[in-house]
Amino acid sequence: MAVENWSETVLLGELSDDPQYTDDLNAIIEQCTNNRQLDVVLNFANVTYLNSSNIAKLLKLRKLVVITNERRLILCAINRQVWGVFLVTGLDNIFDVVDDVATGLASLQIGK
Fold first, then answer.
1. Which residues, 6+ apart, have CB-to-CB distance to 6 below 8 Å?
2. What is the pTM of this model?
3. CB of 12 closer than 8 Å to CB of 6
4. How far apart are CA 72 and CA 52, in angstroms?
5. In terms of residue numbers, what domain contains 21?
6. Each residue of 95-110: pLDDT tens digit?
7. How many domains, in total, are found in the chain?
8. Is the CA virtual torsion 78, 83, 87, 91 positive or negative?
């Protein structure tokens, strides 16, 4: 599994295409349900496509982390093809997106 506790309050997910994408997001959702103090950084570097199920799962995670838990969810390293899906669906307007993992982790520290 490509999900790790980067610190006590930060969960780092290294996502890949399905079926691993779904498994990893399910694991992250479970951890964020059990620990409401987690910020989440998702690395999309190995994701080459998104389907409607992937988007629904990502929106579920956003609702849990950002709205319910009042924590931060940062997406990073989104490739051009996947970014196109974000633009067409309007997801670019509701997610916090940065260039790479280091920037995502740093922005959590700055934002506190």
1. 12, 41, 105
2. 0.94
3. yes
4. 23
5. 3-110
6. 999 999 999 999 998 8
7. 1
8. negative
Quote the CA–CA distance of 72 and 109 in Å, as a whole number: 11
Q: What is the CATH number of the domain that holds 106?
A: 3.30.750.24
Length of the chain: 112
Give the DSSP H or E segment for 45.
strand 39-46
Percent of the chain with pLDDT over 70: 97
The answer to whether residues 17 and 85 touch, using CB atoms and an 8 Å cutoff, is no
The amino acid sitting at 102 is A
Q: What are 90-96's contacts with CB under 8 Å, separation 24+?
A: 91/55, 91/58, 94/62, 95/62, 96/72
Run of H or E residues at 41: strand 39-46
Which stretch of DSSP H or E encloses residue 57?
helix 52-62
Please give the Cα distance from 32 to 73 (Å, whole number).
11
